[in-house]
Amino acid sequence: SFRMVKREVSGKLKEDEAMFEDVDEEDVVTDEEEESGEDEGMSDEEGGDEEEMEVDGEKAGEGEEVGEMTAELWREKIAKGDQGLVELVKRAIPQPFSQTSPEAPWEPTQELRTLIKSLFLHLASKDTTHKPKQLRQLGMAVFARVDVLNWVGRAAEEEFKSFPSSSTSWKNALAFIKAIPLPHENWTTPLFESASQSQARKFTKENKGKMLSKALEEYVLALTKQKLPTVVQLSLMSWLSGAPMQHLPRPQLTAQFFFSNFSKGSTHAIFALEGLFQLVVKHNFEHPTLFEEVYALTTPSSFHLNHKKKFLDLLDMLLSSTHLSTYIVAAFVKKLSRCLLYVPFDIQEPVMGLIRNAITRHPTASFLMHREQPDSVERDPFDEEERDLKKSGAMESSLWEVKTLQTHFLYPVAKRARFIDAPKQDVESFIRFRGADGYWNDTMTRAYGEAVGGMGREERQWAEEEGDERLRRKIPIVENLASTKILPQKTFLAEYGSVWAV
Description:
mainly alpha; Noc4; CCAAT-binding_factor; CCAAT-binding factor domain-containing protein
């Protein structure tokens, strides 16, 4: 008898984060979140200990007669996590594959098709969100086996046509393919014994990876063709942009899915951007207007979203090439500089870090940093509404917006803005992200009044530069302070009517 290998899923499965608009923060699962298991309804800690799916043949009742199994009966067995599922499947389906002629390909019998249909009935539940651990166990026992998953992928598109519109059902459909091993793990073995040598040759070590990759591609493409709820679309893009895309035989077939979401703008565009980068950089996909599209997306509004850190990482990736034209780098650097006046204060330091690193990579754009004119919006030839990077006027402008932030009310932001007066650095600096709580604690622990007044001017300047402890107040700070009541994190400036800088 075969005993299923138990694997512990360590924390969150992999995929992102917070939502805005009509999508709640806990709904989207990104690659980082999946590995810690914090996604709502998908945590292994919910509901106490999980009932393990036993597949030991000794508990299956080997002498028990197995009648004709319908898809509904199989679904009930799967939902209950019945013991001995593997042995039950083998006894209920003694002939899983058949041939119409010796030269014809092997096809699944009606019994096996019924079993596969029961999986989609199980996933199509409107009320139950299946946990990744349960789906992984189910896959390892039956449906992720190389000879079964091959036909699960082929049946996916047709089965998805009858799926309910419930968000829970589509979350389950995505959670299943995310919970099974990727083809490069290549641990899965056939569930059924091969009927002939020709069939056995299909499941050799060399062919298994190809078959699993093909099954993954068919299942994923079937998902991308459906009208998915917003939260599922975002989760699918976040997951697919990572390791799974590297295992698709034809990743270019996902381009329509990414482009259609990118054209929607906002969070859809940010999530689609990573997939587009993968297609362009690693799969030689042609997209002549990629820089123009990303440039148009670089607005203060994008940095007010909950995914602003992800967007900044993608911009850093886009500007990492050392072969970019100077006008492209200058346009992005100037656009980011203008955004500094309107973005939340907790993203201003990272944006300035990106600007500084971009100039370090592309020294030909350093003239923006040392040019003093223009010094205001009225005198600036830069047109932030212009989509053509050559016509934006960035080459004739300067980074006076960064200079403005040197009078910022937050000391760390003002200190970071001093790079505009320093010589061009030779090594890229670390881009630090910290939330509003970090800035609040830093402000509350900074010395003021007599503590600072007692120092001489030079001594005080040295202490500020070196982070001297004498500039810290010796008071305890509550780490879990609900600072959002004092420093709101989700302020959205629909119009450019005010700035953070003083």
